[in-house]
From TrEMBL, chain A:
Keywords: Membrane, Transmembrane, Transmembrane helix. This is Subunit I/II of b(O/a)3-type cytochrome C oxidase. It comes from [Anoxybacillus] calidus. The chain crosses the membrane at residues 25-47. It comes from the Bacteria. The keyword Membrane applies.
From TrEMBL, chain B:
SUPFAM superfamilies: Cupredoxins. It is found in: Cell envelope. CDD domains: ba3_CcO_II_C. Keywords: Copper, Membrane, Metal-binding, Transmembrane, Transmembrane helix. Gene3D superfamilies: Cupredoxins - blue copper proteins, Rhodopsin 7-helix transmembrane proteins. This is Cytochrome aa3 subunit 2. It comes from the Bacteria. It comes from [Anoxybacillus] calidus. It catalyses: 4 Fe(II)-[cytochrome c] + O2 + 8 H(+)(in) = 4 Fe(III)-[cytochrome c] + 2 H2O + 4 H(+)(out). Subunits I and II form the functional core of the enzyme complex. Electrons originating in cytochrome c are transferred via heme a and Cu(A) to the binuclear center formed by heme a3 and Cu(B). Its main location: other.
Length: 51, 158
């Protein structure tokens, strides 16, 4: 009976360790995203201007 | 599998932008009929001088206000290299090469294409402003590459 109890305690410890903060990652991903959108849209307007 | 909430957000935007691009390309190609400058029009590169319209390169009137501009590129020149276009003309430019790969860029416009031996590349543009344009080769083709140019003048004509 002693062994199963030991095994039960392990996953509980892991669960509390998870979910790191990804705020910085989210900000940098969208910063890059907006930069890409800005360049593509400005190239499109350059194309329209030269039509 | 557990995915972080933020991860779901940027995955949604990433996959979403793929669909936006696919839709734009689809509408542009199938609804508006846009094609790349070369749509597999072929020509024998050794018989360019005998093949119409390149046996008489230059500007040809094809309609009310429509023109065809046929240009032969070769190392290291365009034939012809002094062109006059009446203002407001809708010009379809056809280019081919007799030897190696050349470029065809009308500086400051959307006219920009590769010229490959064996193919005819086309681009249609309406010239609404008078002025001068320089055509340059933007595909390295050999020792005289930097001297490979042509001049286009858009002039007032009744
Ligand atoms: Cu060239």
């Amino acid at each position: 009976m002693a062994i199963p109890q030991l095994q039960n305690t392990k996953p509980k410890v892991k669960m509390t360790k998870e979910s790191p903060s990804l705020k910085g990652t989210l900000a940098s991903v969208f910063l890059l995203g907006f930069f890409l959108m800005f360049t593509w849209i400005s190239i499109y307007f350059l194309f329209l201007d030269r039509l | 599998m557990h995915i972080h909430k933020y991860e779901k957000i940027w995955l949604f935007f990433g996959i979403g932008s793929l669909f936006v691009f696919l839709t734009i390309i689809g509408v542009s190609a199938f609804a508006q009929g846009n094609q790349p400058p070369s749509c597999l029009t072929t020509i024998d590169p050794e018989k360019v001088d005998e093949t119409p319209p390149f046996n008489k390169p230059g500007l040809v009137k094809t309609g009310d206000n429509e023109y065809q501009l046929n240009i032969v590129a070769s190392a290291f020149a365009y034939t012809p290299n002094q062109i006059e276009i009446p203002k407001g003309a809708k010009v379809t430019i056809n280019v081919t090469t007799k030897d190696v790969i050349h470029g065809f860029e009308m500086a400051g416009t959307n006219v920009n294409m590769m010229v490959e031996p064996g193919y005819v590349n086309s681009f249609t543009k309406t010239f609404n402003k008078t002025g001068q344009y320089t055509i340059v080769c933007n595909e390295y083709c050999g020792a005289g590459h930097h001297m490979m140019t042509a001049k286009v003048k858009v002039v007032n004509k009744q």
